[in-house]
TrEMBL record, chains A, B:
Its EC number is 1.11.1.5. Pfam families: CCP_MauG, Cytochrom_C. Residues 310-330 are annotated as: Disordered. It is an enzyme of class 1 (oxidoreductase). It comes from Methylocella tundrae. It comes from the Bacteria. The keyword Protein biosynthesis does not apply. Its main location: periplasm. One of its GO terms (cellular component) is periplasmic space. InterPro entries: Cyt_c-like_dom (IPR009056), Cyt_c-like_dom_sf (IPR036909), Cytochrome_c_Peroxidase/MauG (IPR051395), Di-haem_cyt_c_peroxidsae (IPR004852), MauG/Cytc_peroxidase (IPR026259). This is Cytochrome c551 peroxidase.
Length: 330, 330
């Protein structure tokens, strides 16, 4: 009897966990989030939504990486402190854990290293790490949560960024129709979408856009066959390595949820997926797609939209008399 | 048998619904939200969170009435389009359904009439009703939701504002400790808090702050005994009635969740509850509270914090090629 139950349980496990993934494909499914420290994730979520991490008291991570808008803001250039335009298009935070490094030029090695940047960027949140820590530790409910999440008292910038990164680790989008197809559900994609996928593989897009993120795992030149024309001053990876060969190399963006993360490219100049696909074909592969081919690739790309994270809006603990005042108009 | 079940059921109903409310008190408990058209509320929630209702594509109702911050932004003056300061402190949307009219001067008769205002206010969302409608109806998923919510095709400003108002109707905060005490739970308040409540009644605060909202149901002069000194140009109710007797009359703010809606007064000049209570005592009642009395009143006011609405962040449907582009820097 016991054995039979065990057998049934194992059977169930096999059905759930060992799905027939198409191992030969250059794209792999997105794994769901594993939460090991829920208190840390919950704290990170609060900090992610807290505008008091900015000098003005009005800009949070969620202002530019809006989780109602697939982790971005759908603007060509984001709006930072005092309405300054951010100089480069804002990538999504969804699945950003899969990136080989963070930022278009990869200058931050991981999410924790990245999270300290925007707070002190004068065109973004315009604060200082000292001010961020002073704000957070002036709020007793935060201090208590830090203790619960880290096991000891103390608020510092290391812990603030670790908590935010832990939250971002959970922002994954599994169960796209494409992933269902990868996992063996033949009815998940239409004929057109499959033809688009075949074109995506056969014409060479997968050389750069592959892996679970469909990108995010290498730096590549923007404009391989033909140069990319833009007035945006960003020079890409060379800013990090100093190596002239890296000039105009950018981290290949992941194409997960790309239907939702318009406009496209580091300068945000491509308003539609059709335009982005056309440009990629010409500049990266020297190939001009017919309208029909372009439409098929776009149809395929739209199958990469996964389940968006379900976020219950956090209730932020109130400031106290010790909390430094926001300076929106200072 | 059937009768007995009925009796038990009735018994249960009585326990749940007919609670021993202290009828003689000048403050009544907040009733939980009743949702009659969930599709309309869900649509309204999306619109409330949608920054595309602004010209810039970056400002939503939630930017200033942040539901992570008790429906306000905790700034003296909010930040509107192009970082313009809003000229008057932003009230919370929580329980705003209980207001006799909306805005500090009551110029909108209800939530629906109010909701059309900020979209077209040049220092707030800086859009036009035409543009808002064009944006919304260019998005097929919205069009479908409008049909589901209203029973027929069509997007117009009347429906947009009706949906937002329906969502706002659900933003109530029942179950504060004070309400539990009103409903008969004697252990819900401490001795200090009860003494604060006694002072609040005996010294005359309840003359203006009463009813379920603890305010929100009349316009009163700011500075009854002594004039209020401020550099803020707002003149209050006179702007609506043209009657000089209404000069410097403001809608009495509700004190529900007042612990969370700092800073205080129409000019946002009182940073703490202690300051606001002190000013009210002197200017409205000609009374100077001792430090201890002030602390007791503040302790009472903090018992008015209720359950904050649990909001699952909506996922907004993507724009299309027909959607007018946001103009953040135009
Ligand atoms: C004012 C807009 C703005 C704010 C606020 C902002 N970001 Fe960003 N974020 C950007 C832009 C722009 C980039 C790209 C910058 C670059 O690559 O040089 C970026 C990049 C990132 C990346 C890298 C993604 C990738 O694919 O490389 C992550 C992760 C991220 N931000 C998280 C955050 C967090 C966490 C916060 C809050 C602490 C935050 N951002 C606040 C605009 C913003
Ligand atoms: C040689 C490498 C390479 C190849 C091949 C390539 N891409 Fe890209 N792709 C990139 C890089 C690098 C970027 C970022 C360019 C930038 O923003 O300046 C990019 C950006 C994109 C974007 C915009 C993503 C965003 O969020 O901004 C799309 C869509 C895209 N590629 C699709 C394709 C398709 C479809 C193909 C095949 C037709 C393709 N790519 C081929 C490297 C490549
Ligand atoms: C840029 C800031 C800003 C934005 C955006 C904004 N509001 Fe407001 N809201 C205010 C301010 C300031 C007031 C008070 C104005 C007055 O009384 O003259 C106010 C008043 C209100 C009130 C009246 C509350 C009361 O107690 O009288 C409601 C309800 C409200 N807003 C809802 C909304 C909705 C719905 C939206 C989006 C469609 C919105 N607001 C967008 C700043 C903003
Ligand atoms: C004569 C009417 C009146 C009396 C009496 C009165 N208030 Fe007020 N109260 C108001 C008005 C009107 C305002 C708004 C004033 C403004 O913003 O300019 C207000 C504002 C407040 C605020 C700030 C709320 C906010 O969100 O900005 C608090 C707190 C407050 N009152 C508490 C009290 C207390 C405590 C007492 C008794 C000591 C009291 N009030 C007596 C009319 C009154
Ligand atoms: Ca983009
Ligand atoms: Ca009314
Ligand atoms: Ca206030
Ligand atoms: Mg307004």
């Amino acid at each position: 009897m016991k054995r039979r139950i065990l057998a049934i349980m194992l059977g169930a496990c096999v059905t759930v966990f060992v799905r027939p993934v198409r191992a030969e494909e250059p794209i792999q499914p997105i794994a769901p989030a594993k939460v090991t420290n829920p208190a840390l994730v919950e704290l990170g979520k609060k900090l992610y939504f807290d505008p008091r991490l900015s000098k003005s008291g009005a800009i949070s991570c969620n202002s530019c990486h809006n989780l109602s808008l697939a982790g971005t803001d759908n603007l060509k250039m984001s709006i930072g402190d005092h309405w300054q335009p951010d100089p480069i298009n804002t990538p999504t935070v969804l699945n950003s854990r899969l990136n080989l490094a963070q930022f278009w030029d990869g200058r931050a090695k991981d999410l924790k290293a990245q999270a300290g940047g925007p707070m002190v960027n004068p065109v973004e949140m315009a604060s200082t790490h000292e001010l961020v820590v002073n704000v957070v530790q002036s709020i007793p409910a935060y201090a208590t949560e830090f203790k619960g999440a880290f096991g000891s008292d103390g608020v510092d910038i290391d812990r603030v960024t670790a908590a935010i990164a832990a939250f971002e680790e959970t922002l994954v989008t599994p169960n796209s129709r494409f992933d269902k197809w990868l996992e063996g559900d033949k009815s998940a994609l239409t004929k057109t979408e499959l033809e688009g996928y075949a074109l995506f593989k056969d014409s060479g897009c997968v050389a750069c856009h592959n892996g679970p993120g469909v990108g995010g795992n290498s730096f590549q030149k923007m404009g391989v066959v033909e140069p990319y024309k833009t007035s945006n001053p960003a020079q890409g990876r060379v800013a990090v390595t100093g190596d002239d060969a890296d000039r105009f190399n950018f981290k290949v963006p992941m194409l997960r949820n790309v239907e939702l993360t318009y406009p496209y490219f580091h300068d945000g100049e491509a308003a539609t997926l059709e335009q982005a696909v056309e440009t990629m074909g010409k500049l990266q592969l020297g190939r001009t797609f017919t309208e029909e081919e372009n439409a098929k690739i776009v149809a395929f790309l739209k199958t990469l939209t996964g389940d968006q994270p379900q976020i219950v809006l956090p209730h932020l603990p109130p400031s106290t008399k010790k909390t430094p005042q926001p300076q929106p108009f200072g």
